[in-house]
Amino acid sequence: MNFFAPIVLSSLLATIGFGYPHPGGRNKPSHSAVARVGTNDNRRSAGALRDGKLELKLDIVKAQWFPESDSGPSVTIQAFAEDGRAPEIPGPMIRIPEGTEIHIALHNSLPDSEVVVHGLHSRPAMTDDVVRIPAGATREVTFQSGPPGTYFYWGTSLNKPIVTRVGQDSQLSGAIIVDPRVGPAARDRTFIIGVYSEDPDSVAGRPPRPREILVINGKSWPHTERFTFTEGDTVLWRVINPSAAPHPMHLHGFYFSAERSGTEGADTVLAASAIRQANTKLLVPGSTMDIRFVPDRPGNWLFHCHLAVHVDGMSTLANMLNRRPIEEMELEHVNMNHGVHEMAGLIIGIHVLPRTGVTHVASTKEPQRLRLLIQSSPYGYNRNPAMGFVLQQGAEPRKDSVALPGPTLFLERGRPARITVVNRLKAATSIHWHGLEIESYPDGVAGWSGMPGRIAPAIQPADSFVAEFTPPRAGTFMYHAHVNELVQTNSGMYGALIVTDSTHPFDPRIDKIILVGGAGPGNIERRSTGMVNGTIRPQLDLEAGTTYRLHIIQIHPQAVVVFRLGGDSTIARWTPVAKDGADLPPAQSTPRPAYVMLGAGENGEFLYTPERPGVQRLTIKTQLAGWYVPVMIFVRPAKKVLAGLDLTSLAAHQENH
Ligand SMILES: [Cu+2]
Hints:
Blueprint: H1 5-10, E1 35-36, E2 38-39, E3 48-50, E4 53-65, E5 75-82, E6 87-89, E7 91-97, E8 101-108, E9 115-118, E10 130-133, E11 138-144, E12 149-156, E13 173-179, E14 188-196, E15 213-216, E16 226-230, E17 235-241, E18 247-251, E19 256-263, E20 267-269, E21 277-278, E22 280-283, E23 287-293, E24 299-305, H2 317-322, H3 326-335, E25 347-353, E26 368-377, E27 386-391, E28 406-412, E29 417-423, E30 431-434, E31 450-451, E32 454-455, E33 464-469, E34 475-481, E35 494-500, E36 511-518, E37 530-532, E38 539-543, E39 548-554, E40 561-566, E41 573-579, E42 582-583, E43 592-593, E44 595-598, E45 602-608, E46 614-622, E47 628-636, H4 647-655
Parallel strand pairs: 1-4, 2-6, 4-8, 7-13, 14-17, 16-25, 26-29, 28-35, 36-39, 38-47
Antiparallel strand pairs: 3-4, 4-5, 5-6, 8-11, 9-10, 9-12, 12-13, 14-15, 17-23, 18-22, 18-24, 19-20, 19-21, 19-23, 24-25, 26-27, 29-33, 30-34, 31-32, 34-35, 36-37, 39-45, 40-44, 40-46, 41-42, 41-43, 41-45, 46-47
Bound molecules: copper (II) ion.
């Protein structure tokens, strides 16, 4: 995915002094002229703090950055360096108690570029005060810490806004953490996301390609930091996105609560009543979040961006610099055995150790058995080949039958599910039951999920995998491929997963699934277009006066999608009741204009009552240029078709949310 490719490609700004190793690695470049970037895990606060004042000297330099292995490929790039230390990506962290006065001397060692640094100002800030540092010059800035929070600073040598800053200045970002004046500093960790792409003008006549590499604290998976927790630990992470792209950050296995969310200018502490649980949260460029979660099941888990290009194994620096053809790389995808080796970019690995004395009681209920076939067909949507699921009911389905999208799976809360997944593709695959708080082994990250000694394999062609788990929560979820998602998920390997219980029934007369996914294979340079419920002409037939529950599921792996329900010049109202399968707190479950933006991997439930007959439209389109699918909603006059339905108890249930 590259939302910003058109902007990047049209940029005519000259890039100055940018170098990179030549493709192929045949002639090893000399980097003796610039220092090597040191990894910054954001645990050390920069500068010297004395008597309530922080003194810090920062330099902006060119440095050699190794975003993957320390002995792997590298690029020369701009970086911040604290006086007397190696340059760092991300930039040195400024961490101070509330009430500190911060004094920074900023030097610009770039030979001929002015650098504009944002974020070195007091907060909350209504305006974005910047510091401009001409080449070779030093500028000083003094500001007050402002209230506790998660903030950041960032620089640009091309005077770009964050959303187009992808090139040589893209890693000029650092954290500013303000701790409360009293009490111990939180035992937290801070992550800064970075996106890097070659500046088109540096490519010296070669056609630039919209390829990116993605890093967390300066490193790309599998070279990102690994975390080991013990079951029941509390984890507090600050995630900062000063990169040019949005990132729907997804946590496997557990919900997190986003306790703060902010921008460069301000941080907002949410009241307890307003904190909602989520397993995916969209971080738009220039935003931050503080999340808290308790990993309460042992095993291996991931925290990652849900945009497939941002975690795809092809998104490596070597592939970018060598300009390897996609067709050649795709052949490797087919032959790889382990999903985990096919990933790169915005991923953090988490190991959760069992806690002694904690036992997990297995349900003794009779399992619900499903047989889910993964098949392909040359005749998918719009002549695209399709890969997808078929649920076996009775006799074996035809070998080339594929349902687009995948069939909705209905499971019961607290009852074991036993899903036999049969792989009839030519490629290995693996299925993720997205959002379910289950054991690690069936979680679907091939080569990673499970425990030491029992790691889940990829499902090889003609083989099968039995996913056994007991969903502990009723709500709306999804399932999808977790291997080569650009091809597999985009081609149809996605479906809705509904877990029901007595307070979360599913009645097809009032529960309406709106499932947004890909319409054919994509790759790291080309986005798949979108479909809704397997078509580009979806429609809903509703009845005036009836309250419907819309289950809006966004699993297009290359899109951030905006939903808006209304007429041509009006917007309807709806009431959100759940996010990512978790019921919303009452304070958040209030009527509001029917508009929502969902990143890949997010879902929401919304109560909607069409008031009068007529035509409404749920507009579904990508946040930036891309595709658009309208859902036409035909509202009939009330005919009491739903007379048999107990709407009173339904309303009572909804009010309890
Ligand atoms: Cu991302």
